[in-house]
Amino acid sequence: MFCPHCGQNNPPDSLFCTYCGACLNYDDNNSFQPTPPMNPYTPPQAPYPPYQYPPYPPMAPVKPKQTNPCAIAGFVLSLVSVFLPWFGFVCALLGVILSGVGISQSTRLDQDGKGFGIAGVIVSSFVLFFYVLVIILVAIGISVSI
């Protein structure tokens, strides 16, 4: 089917011209509806090329960072030292050591878990301070009573 506006050939089932966009509507008796006359001063336009995106480069899958196990163990031991009065001093001491090792390893090996290590050091330090204070107060109480 030829467009009455620009004269270009179009597919037979088109409603609009693919070159100039003119309406290709039919009446019931298969005749064209009136269209404005073609401007003789404008050249016929070529169809628009399909828009193409550049291909994306393949991306490597993102691997999550591993959490340092020493930092986690130090934090867990610091929490255990709060709730276990008989083994609290030993757990707090081990918590400080493991949390410190976890902080240094997570920094050196670019791992997560530095926050666990810092929290483990802080909690264990408070627990150790509490136990040392209790030991000093018990020693003073024993020396006064003798």
TrEMBL record:
Residues 2-22 form the Zinc-ribbon domain. It comes from [Clostridium] leptum DSM 753. It holds the Pfam family Zn_Ribbon_1. The chain crosses the membrane at residues 72-98, 118-144. It comes from the Bacteria. This is Zinc-ribbon domain-containing protein. InterPro entries: DUF4190, Zinc_ribbon_dom. Residues 70-133 form the DUF4190 domain. Keywords: Membrane, Transmembrane, Transmembrane helix.
